[in-house]
Specification:
Elements: H1 2-6, H2 10-43, H3 48-74
C-alpha cells in the first residue's frame, strides 16, 4: 500500500512545473528544427548532419516530459 503512494510525488510535479513550462517554449522550436532536418535529409542524403539536426529537434520536443520526470524522480515521498 505504501509503495503505491510513493509513486505519485506531487511535490516533485509542482516544483518541476515552471521548468516544464519554460521547456514547453522550446517545443515549437524543436518541431521546426526537426521538420527542416527531415526535409533536408530527404532531399539530399549526403547531408549526414541533417539527420542529427532532426534528432536534436525530437529531443527538444520531448524536453518538457523529461524535465517533469527528472524532478519527480529527485523528490522523495
Amino acid at each position: 500500500m505504501e509503495g503505491e503512494f510513493c509513486e505519485c510525488r506531487p511535490l516533485g510535479f509542482v516544483i518541476g512545473l515552471p521548468f516544464a513550462f519554460v521547456s514547453l517554449v522550446l517545443c515549437p522550436v524543436g518541431a521546426i528544427i526537426w521538420l527542416l532536418g527531415s526535409i533536408l535529409s530527404c532531399l539530399c542524403p549526403c547531408f549526414k548532419g541533417c539527420g542529427e539536426l532532426a534528432n536534436l529537434g525530437v529531443n527538444l520536443v520531448k524536453l518538457p516530459i523529461q524535465v517533469l520526470k527528472w524532478f519527480i524522480d529527485r523528490i522523495p515521498c
